[in-house]
Amino acid sequence: MKGIAKFAVFFLMLVFALAAYLLLNPSLNETILKLSELPNTLANYMGNPVGTDQIKLPTSSYTVSVKCPHPSTDPGIMFLQTSSQLNPSSLAMCGIESAARLNPNKPVYYFMKAFNGNISAYRDPEYKGIRLLSSFKNVIILPLNPKELFNNTPLAGWYAKVDPSKERYWFHVLADGCRLALLWKYGGIYLDTDIISLKPLEFRNFIGAESTHFANNAALGFNRSHSYVENCLRDFVEKFNGAAWGHQGPKLITRMVKKWCGTDNLQSLFNKGCKGIMFLSDNWFYPIPFNDWTKYFEKNQWNNNSDDIEKKFSKTKGVHVWSFLSSRQKIQIGGSHSLVEYFFSTYCPSTYETLPK
Predict the structure, then answer these.
(1) What's the confidence (pLDDT) of residue 303?
(2) Within 25-89, where are the H helices?
(3) Nearest alpha carbon to residue 263 among 277, 278, 274
(4) CA-to-CA distance for 229 and 221, rounded, in angstroms?
(5) Crossing angle for the helix pair 227-238 and 250-261, to the nearest 10 degrees
(6) What does the alpha-carbon distance between residue 100 and residue 95 come to, in Å, rounded to a whole number?
(7) What are phi and psi of 71, to 5 degrees?
(8) In DSSP terms, which residues pair with 140 in a beta bridge?
(9) Cβ neighbours of 353 (radius 10 Å)
(10) Cα–Cα distance list, 185 to 150, 153, 178, 226, 230 (Å)
């Protein structure tokens, strides 16, 4: 018993001595504190993928590098959400999921204006869209700060002066500017969230025609700092007209293609190179024109006839579903046997499972 008592006294003295040493040695105390906080630091960093910073252990012998793709270093496929929405629509989820599945070796960036950068702050079921998209290993959700994005571009002065409350199509105009700034600063491929990808995409300088007379800006691909994009940015500011639908969007791209290639006959440019830019024909991304958008949602268009659909869209990289028009009506996708249901079930099955049937 005496031996046990002596051991207990010795153990208590050892604990007190160690505690006193830690209090009197702040550097060691700080080291242990930082080590204890490392799991939280890593978790927060992984939920805030905005750079390629390093997290270092507080000893010189060990360094843990945690890298997350960012378009400044790893160009990829980019999507935008310029409103305050934090719950992407089913169509937006499908567009991003389909791009991620078909391009597994490319990072897919989703810029959201209302996103705070911390994935862990957005939990199910309230933010099921963010949780679903972030489950794909190549999807990176990033905050969108227009002021920061437009810095050092021709749009900086325009953004400082424009009054969003007086702009009829503000979210669309802002998106038109953001996509150009993203391509100018980072390069890569930009897709609207209402494009469902059907095939993998290659990096190239391209613009897509939506018809024989008009180009569109829903699908664009450019190298970083491309002079065509710079010309578009300058035209955006010099000829700004927020009251006219598409003036900074499809109409801008159309007039700049004509100027760049020196012709008004856009059909003559289909699938040809023009001063380093490929002008893709309408079947690449716009196989169904905007005035026939309801064809995507007509019921009973497929029933065990997937071969016919795949043949019909065999030369299509992605279908633009014209959400500006379709979102004005309440349309059921699940159970409709429409073209768009086929695309959902085939190219974004995870999103498809969330649809009401």
Answers:
(1) 82
(2) 26-46
(3) 274
(4) 10
(5) 120
(6) 9
(7) -60, -20
(8) 109
(9) 12
(10) 9, 9, 10, 9, 10
Distance of alpha carbon 356 from alpha carbon 322, whole angstroms: 21
Whether the Cβ atoms of residue 95 and residue 55 lie closer than 8 Å to each other: no
> Residue 318 is which amino acid?
G
Determine the pLDDT at residue 63. 33
Number of H helices, E strands in the chain: 13, 10
Exposure b/e, 337-346, CB count within 10 A at least 16 = b: ebbbbbbbbb
Contact 91, 323 (CB under 8 A): yes
Whether the model clears a pTM of 0.85, i.e. scores above it, the answer is: no
Tell me the CA end-to-end span of the chain in Å, nearest whole number.
Answer: 74
Q: Helix 227-238 vs helix 170-186: angle between axes, to the nearest 10 degrees?
A: 150
Q: Identify the three-state secondary structure at position 209.
A: strand
DSSP-derived pairing of the beta strands 188-191 and 77-81: parallel
200-248 pLDDT, tens digit each: 999 999 999 999 999 999 999 999 999 999 999 999 999 999 999 999 9
Cβ–Cβ < 8 Å for 351, 344: yes
Structure tokens at 189: 């491929």
Three-class SS state of 164: helix
Residue 115 to residue 93: CA distance in whole angstroms? 15
Per DSSP, 55 falls in state B
- 335: pLDDT strictly greater than 60: yes
Sheet containing 77-81: give its strands across. Answer: 139-143, 108-112, 77-81, 188-191, 215-222, 206-209, 277-280, 272-274
Q: What is the pLDDT of residues 78-99, one digit of tens each?
A: 999 999 999 999 999 999 999 9
Q: Could you give the CA distance from residue 247 to residue 164 in angstroms, rounded to a whole number?
A: 16
Q: According to the model, what pLDDT value does residue 3 have?
A: 54
